[in-house]
What does this fold into?
Amino acid sequence: MERRLATAAASLLLLVATAVTAAPAATAAPTPTPTVQSTSTASDFGPVSVRGTGDTILTTAFQGFEGDPVRISVDAHAATNTDPRTTAGHFHVRHVHTDGRLVADFEGDIGCLAVGGREAIATGVVTKGEAPWFPGVDLVGQKVSISLEDNGRHGDRMGWVWGVFGQPVSDCQGTVPFIRTTGGDFSVRG
It folds into this structure.
């Protein structure tokens, strides 16, 4: 498919170049300004939201934590998708080891929300929490990024970046939703 598109684009460019060089300069008609149709609609800039809870079981990619249940809850909204200053919301993350010991439990306020189709990225700051698995690590004040993909009730996806472990977290930026949920449901609107 990509090869066909590339071939069609190259053919179109060749056709345009041939037409331009073949026309005498003195008799050439003014080139009309191309009409560009925008694919965005007014709703692209209207209210956006993400709500719900997702459960997952960590895979072997999470060495030392494989099989651990993790639950992420998000409830955030923004008046517009183009101005993160209108964002308000909350998140909560709970990670328990397979033996029942708490790995981390933290929550905070969401300060930026970006929505594109069925996907959302919410970033925020931890306001309270604990991480007994990581003694000496202070979660409060650290930035987090939570990415979500709404697939209805057929296995949403989620991803995350925790600033507490030195990973950079910028407003409304995150990773792809890399792990499928095993329960719960996220609703992304906007």
Residues 34 and 79 are 33 Å apart (CA to CA). The longest helix spans residues 2-22. The radius of gyration is 23 Å.
